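Membrane protease subunit
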Amino acid sequence: MNGNYKGALLGTMISWFLFALIGFGLWGCPTYNVWQQEMSGRAEFAKAEQNRRILIEEAAANLEAEKLNAQAEVERARGAAEAIAIENGALSEKYIQYLWVRQQRNLNDKTVIYIPTEANLPILESTRGLKLPSGEN
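Structure:
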């Protein structure tokens, strides 16, 4: 009978262990789910905070760039105003023509410029793109 007692005791201990394991699982799974959701919430909050900081830094950089662009526009306007003041006061007609001719160097070859003649009719280059045969002269 001594052997049956040990077997019953072992069976009872295993049963209590299984009940404890099931009880721990029933308590532990919801607790783990709550903890996991809390950790994912913290991670999302940190990510949102970082994205917010990035957006603030980008906005500050854009503001600084716009301020610098505005300063550049002011300087260009000052330069243009000074140039107009110089042109109105001291430039001759010949110098203005020289500046216009110098500007024409920057135009590409496809730009067509019409210069009026005595009769105010433009001179057209109708043979500009044609190649003349080399044998005829």
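The radius of gyration is 45 Å.
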